[in-house]
Amino acid sequence: MNLADIVEKAKEYEAELVSQVTGKVKGMFVEFLRSIDYNNIGSSTPNISIIQVVEHEHLNLLYSGPGFYVIETDFKHDENGCNFSIHEKFKVIYRGHSGTLKRRIESHLFNEAYNAGYEKRKEGGQSSEMPFTACMKIENGINGINVDKSPYLDFKWYVIQHKMPGSSELIRKQVEAAFDDVFNKPLANRDR
How many structural domains does the chain have? Predict the structure, then answer.
């Protein structure tokens, strides 16, 4: 057997292992999501919090590290097949994950401010971050929104953040998959 054959066989083993592990991890997240009473978030759930977002400054209440998040709103409520809801007449319109939760949510909900801030950080040499270019798409052709501007200003927006320090992208993707299994995919998620 030559080196190329060994690499190909190793890739097969790796794919099999990843599939087994992700299935187990997703299963743990399904059970976790089913067990949480989101109407009673408090000291027993220190890594989960609910923040109403009206102004850009409210983003300062968000975690900057890795995590999973959902965005709940009363915008397009009737068109949304996701059945996760904390507040009456609200549904989760988007779910996602990131290594930098606060910036990622800014890219979704305050897209103009995020893009302007990214350009400033890039020009000033303050950041080597990659820009978030694929953002929540509520309307076709619109990438990210600005909740402080019309028509979104007339609706309420909440972020439910799940802090996941030390988590990898692979782990956080399993929370997304588990969320979709438990609550159905939200309206503005265009993946898979």
Answer: 1
